Amino acid sequence: ALMSAPALAQHVDTDYDRSTNFGAFKTFAIGTIKMSEDTSPLMMQRIVGAVEGNMRVLGLRRVETNPDIVISIQGDTREELVYTGWGDPYWWGPGPYWGGVAYPYYGGYYGWNAYPIIVGRLILDVTDTKTEKVVFRGTAHDELSSKARKNERKSFEAVEKIFEKSPWGRKFDRD
Asked: Is-contact 54 28, C-beta < 8 A?
């Protein structure tokens, strides 16, 4: 029977400065955007649009001058190997004793396959313009597809999950 490794699921992690009053921020601007060379300019525009949309939903307004916070966007890709195991690695036969003599024999077969996948990573850093300190960082990574529509959906989901887990979001863990 074929066994396969579980599919790589989108992973999102956030960290923030616990002494910051995030409710005081009312305006934002988009700061530096650094993407890997193989990133499509269209995908970059979609990610910026997703960030802007989520900030508007959170009640913040984009301004060009004197923002309360600046959001910097970074993205990169890397190749990883995924391993899948196949076969039946178990002992089988007529039993441990055959004719009164211990005679187990190995009849199983198994192996491993490795294949490369491309993993994309998105990092959002939020900087307080008054203190010039990073007050929030959200990261997301997921396997990329060869289809632009799937990657677009994944990038929107990544940005949404980052902001849901932010101090502004509904899934924020207030520990």
From this structure: no
Task: Report DSSP state, residue 24.
Answer: G
Structure tokens at 162: 């980052």
The residues, any chain, with a CB within 8 Å of residue 45's CB and separated by 6 or more, are none
Closest alpha carbon to 166 in 34, 8, 28: 28
Phi-psi label, residue 100: left if phi above 0, alpha if psi -120 to 50, beta otherwise: left
Q: What would the two tokens of residue 101 be?
A: 């003599």
Contact 63, 29 (CB under 8 A): yes
Quick one: DSSP state of residue 99?
T
Q: Give the pLDDT confidence of 46-68 residue by residue, as tens digits.
A: 999 999 999 999 889 999 999 99
Q: Of 111, 121, 132, which Cα lies nearest the Cα of 31?
A: 132
Q: What is the pLDDT of residues 117-143, one digit of tens each?
A: 888 899 999 999 999 999 999 999 998
Task: Decide: 34 and 48 in contact? Cβ < 8 Å.
Answer: no
pLDDT in tens, 38-49: 788 888 999 999
Residue 122 region, left (φ>0) first, then alpha (ψ -120 to 50), else beta? beta
- CA 22 to each of CA 14, 96, 136: distance values in angstroms, whole numbers, following the listed order: 14, 67, 10
